[in-house]
């Protein structure tokens, strides 16, 4: 079989243009570098080509999540035994320089000069470009991908979503959309932070992880409407669509699927969070001193 040539910057920039990325776009990108196959220059070239595609008037945004900033023993309540306390004490505090675990492409953008980062200890984003300061300015601890977050701001700015070699199971805007439904699945995040000068553990409510149960279905139904631009770049299936269009469609579908008697009820936990202990309405964040675990 003939060997595929490595993709270069011009190849990628041309591909983004054919998909429909425009100068001035506010673009939320979820990307897998390995999905492309060979890329000459790796993640640096992918980021450079995306920045060129949105231009000086545009803004490039990527999730820079940090699941390592989490309680390693979320099921342990009350005063912890010494081994649990030691593991919790070893969890790092979030800073703007904390490496993301979202892959090589968002890490490259995080390290790019001029990139800004939002403040959430677990679900921050990085942004580069004209509206970067606006995108990262607001992010609540509770419902960190909800209305008061960079995802809400990207929608307000008329932003679009670009999936590069990943599916809708990696599309954080579906978490954003589900959170708008009164029937959304719930969890508690738990992470360390400095509060009033001391290290403390903070608990905040959020939408539970989907774990492949509904997001692929809702994403496929959205694409079937014909408003998604798609194409293959290297070996990666890539898709571009309007963020607000997706959110409006997906919110209605989650309402239908998650209401009592719908296809899916309740939530599943995830390794980043504590299981929700109540099924109450969206709430704020609670703080407990680190000395109590």
Architecture overview:
The chain has 293 residues and is α+β, with helices and mostly antiparallel strands. It has nine helices and eleven strands. The strands form two sheets. A seven-stranded mixed β-sheet has the order 3-4-2-1-5-9-8, with helices on both faces. Strands 10-6-7-11 form a four-stranded antiparallel β-sheet. The longest helix is centred in the last third of the chain and has 16 residues. The protein is globular and about 55 Å long.
Q: Would you count the extended β strands for me?
A: 11
Q: How are the strands of the biggest sheet laid out side by side? A: 3-4-2-1-5-9-8
How do the SSEs run, as a string of H and E?
A: HEHEHHEEHHEHEEHEEHEE
* Major beta-sheet overview: 7 strands, mixed
The total count of helices amounts to: 9
Please state the overall shape, judged from the principal axes of the Cα atoms: globular
The Cα radius of gyration reads 19 Å
Please estimate the helix content. 25-40%
Low-confidence stretches: 265-282
Q: From the helix content, strand content and strand pairing, which structural class follows?
A: alpha+beta
Distance between the termini: 57 Å
The average pLDDT is: 91
Question: In percent terms, what proportion of residues is strand?
Answer: 15-25%
Write a concise keyword list for the protein shown above.
9 helices; alpha+beta; 21% strand; 293 residues
Describe this structure in a few short sentences.
The chain has nine helices and eleven strands. The chain has helices at residues 9-19, 42-54, 82-89, 104-111, 132-136, 150-156, 172-179, 215-223, 243-258, and strands at 26-31, 59-63, 116-117, 125-129, 160-164, 186-195, 198-207, 229-233, 236-242, 273-274, 285-289.
């Amino acid at each position: 079989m003939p060997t595929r040539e490595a993709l270069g910057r011009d190849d990628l920039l041309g591909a983004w243009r054919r998909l429909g990325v425009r100068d001035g776009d506010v673009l939320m990108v979820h990307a897998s570098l390995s999905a492309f196959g060979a890329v000459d220059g790796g993640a640096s070239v992918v980021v450079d080509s995306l920045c060129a595609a949105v231009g000086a008037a545009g803004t490039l945004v990527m999730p820079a999540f940090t699941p390592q900033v989490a309680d390693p023993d979320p099921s342990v309540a009350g005063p912890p035994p010494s081994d649990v306390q030691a593991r919790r004490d070893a969890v790092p505090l979030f800073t703007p320089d904390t490496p993301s675990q979202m892959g090589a492409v968002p890490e490259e953008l995080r390290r790019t000069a001029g990139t800004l980062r939002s403040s959430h200890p677990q679900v921050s984003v990085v942004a580069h470009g004209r509206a970067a300061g606006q995108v990262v300015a607001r992010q609540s601890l509770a419902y960190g991908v909800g209305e008061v977050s960079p995802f809400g701001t990207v929608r307000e700015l008329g932003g679009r979503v670009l999936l590069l070699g990943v599916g809708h199971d990696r599309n954080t805007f579906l978490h954003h959309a589900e959170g708008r439904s009164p029937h959304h699945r719930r969890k508690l995040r738990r992470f360390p932070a400095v509060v009033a000068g001391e290290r403390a553990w903070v608990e905040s409510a959020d939408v539970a992880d989907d774990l492949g149960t509904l997001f692929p279905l809702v994403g496929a139904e959205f694409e079937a409407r014909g408003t998604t631009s798609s194409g293959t770049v290297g070996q990666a299936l890539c898709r571009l669509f309007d963020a607000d269009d997706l959110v409006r469609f997906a919110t209605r579908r989650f309402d239908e699927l998650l209401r009592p008697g719908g296809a899916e009820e309740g939530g599943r936990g995830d390794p980043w969070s504590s299981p929700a202990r109540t099924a109450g309405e969206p709430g704020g964040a609670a703080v407990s001193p680190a000395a109590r675990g």
